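fold-stage: in
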Amino acid sequence: MSDTTDFRGTANRTDDRLFLPFLSNFYERFAKPFAWVALRVAVGGVLAYEGWRKMGNPMAMSGFVESLNFYPGWFWSPLLGLVNLVGGLFIVFGFLTRPAALANTFMLAITLWYHYVNPYGPTFLTPEGIAFMQTPEAAQYFTADAMRRLGDGGANFLNQVQGKAIFASLFWTGAAGLFAAFGGGALSIDNRMKKEF
């Protein structure tokens, strides 16, 4: 056999490419489709949850989106929540997966860009504040954990937070982009429809 497979495993896989050819049916009929569903449910579920939280206060991000030059904020702020909530649910069920994932990918790419060009900053404290943290008096005002994190002005903590913000945004942008490119997979509503995006 010399057939090839797409990313979702919807075409026939060649048994001669496998070290253990007897696993071919397991991969094709179980592992690939269910792994795709598990990832789809996880990504869509997290996006839907974030959308649900945003819809609890739909205007909360108005000022933020306007700071990114998306006007008017009263339009874009609730739209972000709806894109996450409805798009996330569509991804979970594999319904109109590509357009739902594409909308979320675009939004998440803006988040990634924002974290990249607007880092958290080098420190929380001025040099005087760092010097104060070294005094016995500081122990009255800060917990031991705060003393440890602020001993360098918060530089190490902020560096870690910045790295996590960028990598988390990169992961979620890539995960949504994966479904925008490849769709819902074999076990999806899209696959049962006569046509898909």
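fold-stage: in (second)
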Amino acid sequence: MKTKIYFFSAILLFGFFFLSSCKKDEIESDTTSSEDNSLAENMFEDVFKVVDETLKSNDLDGNKSYIYNHNYGDCGIVTIEPAGRGVFPKTITIDFGDTNCVGNDGVSRRGKIITTITDYYRNAGCVITTTLDNYYVNEYKVEGTKTVTNEGRNEADHLYYTIEVSDASITSPEGEEITWQSNRTREWIEGEETTVLTDGLAGILDDVYLITGSSSGVNRFGKSYTITITEALRVESDCFWISEGTIEIAPEDKKIRTLDYGDGTCDFNATVTIDGKTHDIILRGKRR
């Protein structure tokens, strides 16, 4: 009987250490919050790029419907109201329709982006508020409100904007939901000198911004996390992905980890470092 008890105890002890080891490994290698935050970052950067290109490539003084035909193809019809030069606020509706339409950037979209603007985009004090109506990007449903305020010029003589995202959620094609909110500063470091009127499409695609600030959210498994940008995120108008920069992620009940977006290459690769160990991850949200 003693032999059996000792043997059974040994099995229990082994099982305890085995499960503890597995749990520890899982905690130290979990990149869920990193992946979900990057998804939210990319989705709302994409919303900004759609609005940004629309504001820069359309005549805000008219009351016309345009086919949105630059980086995002001829998928969206743009309507600007009311008419009249210098008449604000204006409402800009970008309607991608009820079925998916793939733009020149390879991204499928459907639904509406609705933006209210209080002044011309480059004027200090301009406030741009964007909401989404049944809006999908590559079958991810994107919801929330994005408010962009032109704060004028900084010490480097660059235009900069404060950006708040509130009540945001993203639902995957599989039905997994994440929530997200952020407070950021966006500095326009390249491309201000060119416009679509002087340089065509190149006058939009050469725009580059640096993003600083913080955010927080709840990942697809219901765990909360907070984010701090430690090296400014580089966002280029002609790239779906964030191409450079690092953030620190503090997930609920887990160790702080660092996400590195890379060296400026436009791709879906990133790394997450947890407790000195680096893991490669594939950013979510776009067809590959």
